[in-house]
């Protein structure tokens, strides 16, 4: 109802109706997201599981990492635990989540910890988040937990802040998939005390952790990052934002231009964050001198990695030949073809003199296009 007392009705588009039907066919995902290890994600998840069981829901534990914390072990209580699957690998036997057993058991809710975990080779899926998506497809609700540093688009920011390269990561679209994202947060001081008390890591790791990842500066920055990310997710999901997001998506198209260097992944992630804020369509462009098949195996592997990353961000990955074209012509041709509104480029390696004598790619693009915003992202190697 509007302020003047009249009812306001908006007919859903066919795409929205189909998306809603698909959502109804799947289980619901609830993610407990923490600012750092040890904030209490698993414990809070278990509290909710116990409450659900008291309400009569069929709740099971698929996998919970207790990290030998007694209070976490005790909180599992009488919850049914699905036995882990034995997976032989390189002469050893590992135990991991049994996706098929959970699907056969068909509970109302299953708990699956450590969402960013990489599975043992020979598992049903490469990553645990893929296990979760499989289970959701079978209309089983999932409670799961993950730390903020494992979000793919935050990889570069986390590495800059902490100096740690996080290798296990999840695609950001999982937050969009979730029906709820719950932030589990404690102060940096509280977390450091938990660490000193041996409640997070083993005794021999405490001093090293306090001097590296668990510094006051790092924890405060990660906490702020987590607060901002969850707030943005909640804001994006409010009903009144949907029409604005649709309008933005219709108008904005982002083109990220990458080349064969160490800055490529950073540019892709930066482009996705801009596109995600605007609900815009994302394109990733790279140019090669000839045919893709002519590239050496190492270089082809790099391009395959970027293509895979683009796919995780639901972006279009475009490879163009610049054999007979200058790079600015490749960029402007693609921009015009796809009606691009914003272009993201890495910082030029040319000196000021070279730009004066040979010309600037940015200036050339601006001359050849009209109304396209250009963003320059600093080269991480120069920071």
UniProtKB/TrEMBL annotation:
One of its GO terms (cellular component) is plasma membrane. The keyword Transferase applies. InterPro entries: Histidine_kinase_KdpD (IPR052023), P-loop_NTPase (IPR027417), Rossmann-like_a/b/a_fold (IPR014729), Sig_transdc_His_kinase_KdpD_N (IPR003852), UspA (IPR006016). Residues 25-234 form the Signal transduction histidine kinase osmosensitive K+ channel sensor N-terminal domain. GO terms for molecular function: phosphorelay sensor kinase activity. Gene3D superfamilies: HUPs, P-loop containing nucleotide triphosphate hydrolases. It comes from the Bacteria. It holds the Pfam family Usp. Signal peptide: none annotated. Keywords: Kinase, Transferase, Two-component regulatory system. This is Osmosensitive K channel His kinase sensor.
